Sequence to fold (374 residues):
Amino acid sequence: MEKYENLPAADAALDITDAVCPITFVRAKAALEEMEAGAVLALRMNDGEPVQNVPRSVKEEGHRILKLADNEDGTYTLFVRKVEEA
Amino acid sequence: MEADYAALKRGGFMRQVQKNRFSLRLKVVGGNLTAEQIETVARVARAFGKGYVHLTSRQGVEIPFIRLEDVNAVQEALRAGGVDTGVCGPRVRTVTACQGASVCPSGCIETSALAMEISARYYGRSLPHKFKFGVTGCQNNCLKAEENDVGVKGAYIVRWIKEDCTLCGVCLKACRENALSERDGEIVLDAARCTYCGRCAKSCPTGAWRGESAYLLSFGGMFGNRIAKGRAVLPAFAEKERLFRVTDAALDFFDANAREGERFRAAIERGGWSLFENKVTEAYNGEI
Fold:
């Protein structure tokens, strides 16, 4: 229902479902570094440790988390707006 | 002259296999030493020991191979360099701690400062048997709180602020206990499942979870000849005065109820856990 509507529009996408921690976060960080400030990354990750930890790591990097969407296939997509460091 | 081994042991000089040689235990609180203290220790180990130190299992430092005739000179050299000698025997031992919230992103409490306070209050206090405090900053429990006679574990008592929440869903997955669910635009916390780990507050992108630093105490842990896990008999609470009321009561209970040479755990069990729980609950409630 609401899950598949109202999702933020993404400017870039990255799938880290083939990686394990901490490579999941390393790849997310690298992808965000390539992007313009204000752009939104759709980050697809596995249930379990990635979804427990990657959002927090992204937050601690200073980026803005918009939404964590359950894809209902054992993966989640985290929508992140890039924030440039002050 | 016959050496007073009991007095030496009390002062941290541990008798070695080798005649008239002692491994000198130093005072370390929460696993921190300043660079200056480390330099002092290095100098003393070189001049009076064998040029090395031993790191103990509880964040202590010992300088082995101190000669009996050098005991006073060693004590002076250490004191001049800002290092205190440790203790052994039936008393409150080294207070251990992880780095806690001032350094570690997972930390829920300031462990180093608390270890210093606990140490200032109790270190070296004579009791029926050895007594160990350990302070760990969060549920990750790097410092193994429940191995100690009293373990202090950092926790967050969390509260959800509706106005700040965007229902992004991050906390629902950050929680390892499945204590959170979303219902009709609200995040519902199942208090029975919450372990106070604070992962919801730490991961929330909008600060919609407020985490108040709190303490979870465990009692009667030991990890030597007998292994027993410390038990939590009180709820998490935030006030430091309350913490010290409870620890005062626990040590007084031990002093009053244990037989000489009996560990805290054994004393609690002999009297029954309910007797001990009543004592610390009174202190928790401020009734003593």
In short: Chain B has nine helices and twelve strands. The two ends of chain B are 49 Å apart (CA to CA). The mean pLDDT of chain B is 96.
